[in-house]
Amino acid sequence: MNSRIVRLVLCIGLLGIVAACQESLDQDQDQDQDQPPNKTSRQEVRLIPMKDFFKNPEQTSFQLSPDGAHLAFLMPWENRLNVHVQQIGSDEITRVTEATARDIGGFAWANNNRLVYVQDTGGDENFHAFAVGIDGGNPVELTPFDGVRAELVDDLEDDDDHMLIALNKRVPQVFDVYKVDINSGEMTLVAENPGNISTWVTDNDGRLRAATTTDGVNTTLLYRETEADAFQPILTTNFKDSVTPLFFTFDNRQLYVSSNIGRDKSAIFLFDPKT
How distant is the alpha carbon of residue 55 from its chain centre? Predict the structure, then answer.
């Protein structure tokens, strides 16, 4: 075929394509005129400052008091998160802690009039436990021990004056359980860790009834009927499987556990420790 004819055919084809594209564009423009403008695409996108990703929240970690009369939460003061309390139905907010070096690490209601919170020093993660009134009065350091970490085991909701707190005060590698008076800081040893218990679990009466031990590879679930009994191993899993005790049923006879045995994901199960 003559090269001139070939070029002509190609030009005609290209013109046809351009015409088709122009027609399609005109149709799209006509449709756009009939539809409301897309505001999202035409608005200028605001850049989010980097500091917004790292600054403290304005308010966080809200918790109602047991009687529902007060709301406690963390809010910045002197650039640090501190515990604040607000009576329901009131706009007045009372700051009950005065941390300036480190944020308050967490808190919990001890009763309707008192809160317990934890805080470390310089990021060492050796959290100390403190108690304070909802008006900021009678502040008490419950665990005034250097190099010792406090972990809440049970807030003992039926006991307004005590909590169960685990401390590695005796041996740095293990945590014993103490019953602590939240008003005076007086404490009594409840359970001494034999050296391998990593988790303590109480029933609904605040009694230590279950625990877990680990050797770094295998984890064993321990159980006992009463605190007068010795813990007995009832189940052992390896690093691939897990059975994690969560809490007892209301009748204190069975456990809710999280487990992935026979599954590719964890699920919640009712577990009878006797069978």
Answer: 19
**C-alpha count within 13 angstroms, C-beta hemisphere, residue 150:** 30
User: What is the tens place of the pLDDT at every residue in 60-90?
Assistant: 999 999 999 999 999 999 999 999 999 999 9
Structure tokens at 86: 């607000």
Q: What distance in Å separates the CA atoms of residue 246 and residue 259, rounded to the nearest whole number?
A: 10
User: Residues 6 or more apart from 179 whose CB is under 8 A from it?
Assistant: 162, 163, 164, 187, 188, 190
Q: How far is it, in rounded angstroms, from Cα 205 to Cα 164? A: 12
Q: Is 140 helix (H, G, I), strand (E, B) or coil?
A: strand
Contact present, 108 and 165 (Cβ < 8 Å): no
Instruction: Say what the pLDDT of residue 38 is.
Output: 54
Instruction: Confirm if 58 and 75 have CB atoms less than 8 A apart.
Output: yes
- pLDDT at 20 > cutoff 90: no
Residue 8 neighbours by CB distance under 10 Å: 11
